[in-house]
Amino acid sequence: MLIRLLVLFLCLTSSASAGQIRIKDLVRFDGVRGNDLVGYGLVVGLNGTGDGLRNSPFTEDIMSNLLERLGVNVTGEEYRPKNVAAVFVTATLPPFARAGAQIDVTVSAMGDAKSLLGGTLVMTPLNGADGQIYAVAQGAIIAGGIAAEGQAARVVQGVPTAGMIPEGARVEREVDFDFASLNNVRLALRTPDFTTAGRIEERINRELGRGVAAMLDAGTVSLDLARVRSPSPAHTLSRIENLAVEPQMVARVVVDQRSGTIVIGEEVRISRVAVAQGGLTLRVEEQPAVVQPNPFSQGETIVVPRTRASIEEREGTGLAEIPSETTLSRVVAGLNALGVAPNDMIDILKSIHAAGALHAEFIVK
Known about the structure:
Strand content: 35-45%
Keywords: Bacterial flagellum, Cell projection, Cilium, Flagellum, Periplasm, Signal
Low-confidence stretches: 1-18
Structural class: alpha+beta
Strand order of the largest sheet: 4-5-6-12-8-7
Subunit structure: The basal body constitutes a major portion of the flagellar organelle and consists of four rings (L,P,S, and M) mounted on a central rod.
Mean pLDDT: 78
Family: Belongs to the FlgI family.
Distance between the termini: 19 Å
Function: Assembles around the rod to form the L-ring and probably protects the motor/basal body from shearing forces during rotation.
Pfam family, one: FlgI
Shape: flat
Number of strands: 27
Largest sheet: 6 strands, antiparallel, barrel
């Protein structure tokens, strides 16, 4: 089957208005980050699609502990319900989340449950990396998959053993972080680059005064908040996060062979090179014929094999020249001028890169 090809053009214009990006979209502020939470609990209300307790004994332990806390004595009792499942619950505590805030949680089966559709998560504490409880989750699960089965067949679409609960956890403990007392804040670039970091430093100093921002390396810009006359660090960051800076793009070609997607950056350049492309198609077809015996001959029905094999040679492009290009549009026009099939474009780019004529970072997924 032919690979589908989709060429995306990341054309950033040279004008300042079209190529500038807000600083808040280019960096992460040091200390302003989320915290991962995890817990395990019990989902009830399933329609016979829960854990098999023989294969998942921990489900019975969780259920026994829960019932004991609710005052129900189940010591020595044997029960085999099919509408409960043990699950892991994960969430991210956002920065500056306050007690009483609600966050989304993800619920995933940890046993052999077939589906979490229609289930309800029972009160589950969520712990941070330090072992402290920061939130408590509970609510009806929204699962994204569908499962149906009969006596001889079963069909599954999506993942019915995982789901989420929007705003399903309530924050009970806040992360201790005195942001107002900071004297220095570091900006971490999402894509480290010396030119981009230098432009951020220059833009901030032009706004707040010389010496406030200092580039430490390709991925870090430090802010000296003591030099800024501002009520608080939060006020200072609110002044700089919407300042526009034009980032320097890295020349890069990204190829996803599975989907046939090619992404070409604006800075990609190709030296003068000649390309010839062609290919063979080998086709083997089996068309067996069934031969029946004559009536009353007491013969046997036999299958006569019939195979047809052929080799087809596609007409190549000949030897085509791609001149040295200076813009992305001309590079793409030169590649399209070859007139090759979509599934051959990836191989051509690989060959041009191997020949040293593609001046960009070549990434294959």
